[in-house]
Amino acid sequence: MREHRLIRGYAAADVARAIGMDVDAYDDAELSGVWTGDARQTAALAAVLGLSSRARMSVTGDDERLAGLLGEAVSTRWQAHVRAVAKLTGHDRRTLDGPLRTMHQEYQNLMTATLSRAAAAATSGEQGRIYLEQIVDRFWDLVESSA
Length: 147
What we know:
With 147 residues, this protein is mainly α. The chain has 10 helices and no strands. 24% of the residues are buried.
């Protein structure tokens, strides 16, 4: 948050007032990297600092929640997770269908390869783990390329 604020030349107190947050609470959030704002304050923060959805998620610490949802979506029925991902990211559900479908297929292809050969299992399992570690970046790349 601090970097985004400094790039725009705002004082912390000005951002705190603009988003309706106590100055001390905002300072604590910047120092700790833990966002405690509510949904309205989060939206206001994104507007004041000109944050993209991707940057807002990263700044407010929601990347872990997103990674968890995406991990579930690629390993089970992705359609069941569209609503939760849309709510968390602020994107329309229709724009998420393509990226989630693509990611589900990519992950399932990696995991299917695990079952086909014992020798390939370790490699495919490792590839699946790597895929899940990079899942948030892959998601945003697909969302941004489909826009």
